[in-house]
């Protein structure tokens, strides 16, 4: 007889949760001794449709110990009559660290501006975009100049140090009227080369996090050019909601931009589109000239062109004026952010973070198999869960890439340590 046959059809979930808790009482906390319930290792037990979820604080254990504790908790839960499935979810070191106050905690939306090549107008676009966003009176906007080797934002915005620290020791951004800004150039004075070296790539994310941004609606980051270590670390560690790429219409700039686009996609940062800078110019007689009339950049990069900016020598003298093209760019960027916005994650999503890596795949496939056909399965992980999707395909006897095998399949990085995957079973 299957064990769930010996309990009534409808088991009140509170009773079942109590019975699971009673069973867990005999599992010992390997660190503090005594029961995992008394020691606080098990923070919560919840039940839905005979499926048990145990929230456990495994952050302080090494991998093998966390694995043993997880297995012991699952076995005990599954041994409780009426329980069909048991999942253990761990509080991650990242959850614990989230309690630390981070200078960027009050920032709603982070937009990165990047280019594969130097000199294509990335800083120009970043500052204009930030100014255009800040032109809306109710919107608080910041600009972070992460370009270690050519921090030009202080010059463009006419910013000067010194940078002072607030009571928590975080750097105060410089107030530029309607914008607040921080630049590695303000910290490194005239010696940006001093940032070179093994730790340079970490310096960008440290300065970002150690800046007291306050409550901002939007923060624009001017990334360094290229696809090197600094950009990669910034992509992986900063909470970027979407990226704007800047390219000129020149074929080499476009093909380099395609490489940047791949890097962003591989790191789960949504691409908002491309700004094509210096597309053409208007001569004194008033005629417009397109320098590369054949270039179909939208098709080549397979992503939207957000706007095309002409070559305009007045570009450095706009000051706080917002040209029509950049005002429209800001609106398009906000619309695109809505399009690529975070997936809304239900409470019952399977959170694999904090669990020993060796059991994550098993838990995910088990839970996915138990999902009703046609229902959406949500999974949260601390790194890209895409490789797991192939296992889900075969777990339910399907074939092909996940995008073809399932009616709905999406992976989104909501925060540096929060990747969400949704798959329709
Ligand atoms: N649309 C434009 N029309 C005319 N000049 C422009 C335009 N966009 C940028 N420029 C000029 O081109 C130069 C490079 O621009 P910018 O500093 O914005 O590029 P970048 O990509 O940030 O460069 P890097 O990161 O390599 O320092 C600047 O002198 C800038 O004033």
From TrEMBL:
Protein name: Iron-sulfur cluster carrier protein
Stated family: Belongs to the Mrp/NBP35 ATP-binding proteins family.
InterPro entries from the UniProt entry: DUF2249 (IPR018720), FSCA_dom_sf (IPR034904), MIP18-like (IPR002744), Mrp/NBP35_ATP-bd (IPR019591), NUBPL-like (IPR044304), P-loop_NTPase (IPR027417), YlxH/NBP35 (IPR033756)
Binding, ATP: 116-123
Keyword Metal-binding set for record: yes
GO molecular function, one term: metal ion binding
HAMAP family for the chain: Mrp_NBP35
Lineage: Archaea, Methanobacteriati, Methanobacteriota, Stenosarchaea group, Halobacteria
GO biological process assignments: iron-sulfur cluster assembly
Gene3D superfamilies attached to this UniProt entry: Fe-S cluster assembly (FSCA), P-loop containing nucleotide triphosphate hydrolases
Protein purpose: Binds and transfers iron-sulfur (Fe-S) clusters to target apoproteins. Can hydrolyze ATP.
Oligomeric and partner information: Homodimer.
Keywords on record: ATP-binding, Hydrolase, Iron, Iron-sulfur, Metal-binding, Nucleotide-binding
Pfam families: DUF2249, FeS_assembly_P, ParA
DUF2249 domain boundaries: 350-421
Every MIP18 family-like domain range: 18-88
Organism: Natrinema versiforme JCM 10478
């Amino acid at each position: 007889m299957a064990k769930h046959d010996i309990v009534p059809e409808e088991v009140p979930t509170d009773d079942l949760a109590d019975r699971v808790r009673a069973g867990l009482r005999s599992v010992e906390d390997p660190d503090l001794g005594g029961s995992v319930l008394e020691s606080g290792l098990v923070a919560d037990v919840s039940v839905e449709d005979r499926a048990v979820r145990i929230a456990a604080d495994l952050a302080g254990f090494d991998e093998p110990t966390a694995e043993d504790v997880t297995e012991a908790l699952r076995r005990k839960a599954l041994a409780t009559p009426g329980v069909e499935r048991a999942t253990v979810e761990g509080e991650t070191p990242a959850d614990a660290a989230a309690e630390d106050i981070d200078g960027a905690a009050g920032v709603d939306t982070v937009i990165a501006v990047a280019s594969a090549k130097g000199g294509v107008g990335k800083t120009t676009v970043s500052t204009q975009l930030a100014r255009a966003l800040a032109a809306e009176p109710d919107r608080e906007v910041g600009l972070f100049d992460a370009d270690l080797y050519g921090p030009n934002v202080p010059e463009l915005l006419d910013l000067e140090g010194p940078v002072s620290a607030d009571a928590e020791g975080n750097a105060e951004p410089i107030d530029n009227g309607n914008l607040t800004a921080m630049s590695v150039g303000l910290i490194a004075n005239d010696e940006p080369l001093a940032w070179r070296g093994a730790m340079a790539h970490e310096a960008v994310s440290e300065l970002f996090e150690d800046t007291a941004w306050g409550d901002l609606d939007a923060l624009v980051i001017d990334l360094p050019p290229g696809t090197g270590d600094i950009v990669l670390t910034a992509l992986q560690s900063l909470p970027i909601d979407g990226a704007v790429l800047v390219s000129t219409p020149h074929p080499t700039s476009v093909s380099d931009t395609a490489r940047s686009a791949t890097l962003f996609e591989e790191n789960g940062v949504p691409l908002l589109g491309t700004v094509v800078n210096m597309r053409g110019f208007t001569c004194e007689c008033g005629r417009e000239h397109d320098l590369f009339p054949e270039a179909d950049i939208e098709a080549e990069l397979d992503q939207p062109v957000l706007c095309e900016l002409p070559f305009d020598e007045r570009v450095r003298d706009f000051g706080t004026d917002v040209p029509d093209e950049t005002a429209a760019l800001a609106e398009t960027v906000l619309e695109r952010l809505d399009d690529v916005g975070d997936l809304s994650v239900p409470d019952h999503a399977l959170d694999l973070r904090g669990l020993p890596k060796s059991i994550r795949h098993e838990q995910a496939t088990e839970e996915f198999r138990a999902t009703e056909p046609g229902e959406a399965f949500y999974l949260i992980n601390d790194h890209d869960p895409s490789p797991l999707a192939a296992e889900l395909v075969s777990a339910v006897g399907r074939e092909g890439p996940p995008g073809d095998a399932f009616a709905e399949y999406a992976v989104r990085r909501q925060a540096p340590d929060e990747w969400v995957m949704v798959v329709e079973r």
